[in-house]
Amino acid sequence: MKNPNPPPPRPSASGKPPTSMAAPPRKSRWGPPPPGAAGAAPAGDKAAPSTSARTSTPTHPADSRRHPPHPAPAPHAPRNPASPAVPLRPPPQAAETPPPPPYGFHNLDRRTMILADGTVRTYFALPPDYPFETAPLPPLPQHLLPRGGPDLWPPHQPPPPQMPMPMPMQMQPHEVKRKHPADQDEGFPRHHKQLRLDAPHHPQQPPPHASVDRHALRRAFLKYAKMLNESSVQKRRYLEGGRVSCSACGRDFADVHGLVMHAYNPLNTDSLIDHLGLHKAVCVLMGWDYTKVPENSKGYQSLPADLARASREDLIVWPPTVIIHNTATGRKKDGRLEGLANRDMDKKMAELGFSGGKSKSLYGKEGHLGLTLIKFANNSAGLKEAECLAEFLERKDHGRIGWSRVHATHSIDSDQNPLLVETDTRTGEKKRILYGYLAIASDLDELDSDSRKRAFLKSRRDFNLSD
C-alpha cells in the first residue's frame, strides 16, 4: 500500500530545491495548480505535468489492449485543438428538416395581471391579431353517417308539398308505436316526441260508478244491509274479523277489508250495482266511511264514532217498530216465564198516550222472552208516533243506552232490582220498568222469524213512501 504521507525529498546536488517544494501543497491530485505556482503554464496552455516523484505501475499486456494509453499532449499546446485529420461533417440538407409549426412559444406575448390580494401573476397568450388558419374538420366515421333511402329528403329542401302536415296525424296507429331496436328502419329519420296541438280532444270518461242508477243502488244497499243484520252469527263474524264471503257473487275473502276492496271494484261489471250496494252495507255495519274510495292504507276506516252511530240509526225497520224490553212478570209453577200479554201491553200503551200501535209478545222455549214489539202504521203518521214513543222513553233514560247499561250489569229476571222493578207508593204493587227504542237494521236479529221476514229497511234521509 502506498504511504499517504511520503517523506520530504532530499535536496538535489545542484543545490536548487525541487519544483514541488516551491509550490504549496495541493489538496487534490487531479485539481488545477494553485495560482502563482512555479512552472505554471499560461492560461491558454495546458498545465505541465507534475514533477513529483511517483512510482511507476507496470502495465499488463492485456490491459494495454483493453485500455490503450492516452497520448501525452505536447507542451504549450492549446486546450482543445482541432484535429486536422478528422474531416468536418457536411450540414444537413434543408429538405430533410420538417417545416416549423404555425406558431410556437416565440409567438406568445408575456402578460401580467394583478390579483385581488395585490400579487402579480404572469402568463403567456397569443397576440390579439394573430392570424388563425381554419383547419377542416375530420370526416365522420362510416357508422355515424346517416343512412339514405329513396324517400330521404335533401338536407336543404323543404318536404314535398304533396305530403300533408303534420305527418303523425296521417300515419297509421301501428306506425306511430315505438319499434324494437332490431326492426328495420324505413329510411325516415326519427324525430323527438312533440306535443300535438291539433290532436282531437277526447273528454275524460267518468268512472263507472257515476253512471249507476241511484234508485237501483239504494235498493241494493237496503237489501244487503238487511241480509247482513238478519243473522247474529253472520254479523258477529263481520264485527269480530274472520273469513267472509261476498253475498253478490259468492267469492270468499280472508277479511272484511278484502271484501270491501272487491265490492268497490268488482271484476264483473254486470253486477256493479249489487257490489256497490254490498260495499255500502258492509261499511255501515262496520262503522266505516263508505264515501271514501277504499285503498290499502285503510284510511276509510277512520270514521268518528258519532258519525258511525248516525249511519246505523239512519236505517230503520219498516213498518215502524218499537222494541220494548223488561215485559216479563215472573215464572209460573212449572218454571216457564210469563209476561205481559198483547192486550195488557196495548192497554199500558194507551195509558201512556200511544194507542196507534199493535203489540206482539215474543215467546221462546222457556216461555215469555220479556220482549214485546209495538208495530205502528205503514205511513208517515205511524213513523211519527213510533218516534214519539222512543223519545218519551229516552227522556226518562229508558232508551237504548239505558237498556244497554242495565242489561250489562244486572240480571233481567230479578224482581228486587230497582232498575227493573218499581213499587207503587199507594197500592204497594210492583210494576216493571219498560225500556224501549225504535228498531233499526242492527236490531233485526232480535225480531221473531215472521216479523223479520215481513220487515224491510228504509233510510230516514231519503224517506219516500212511494218506494
UniProtKB/TrEMBL annotation:
Residues 313-445 form the XS domain. Residues 1-11, 87-103, 152-167 have a biased composition (Pro residues). Transmembrane segments: none annotated. Residues 1-108, 147-188 are annotated as: Disordered. Residues 37-61 have a biased composition (Low complexity). InterPro entries: XS_domain, XS_domain_sf. It comes from the Eukaryota. PANTHER family: RNA RECOGNITION MOTIF XS DOMAIN PROTEIN (PTHR46619:SF3), RNA RECOGNITION MOTIF XS DOMAIN PROTEIN-RELATED (PTHR46619). This is XS domain-containing protein. It comes from Urochloa decumbens.
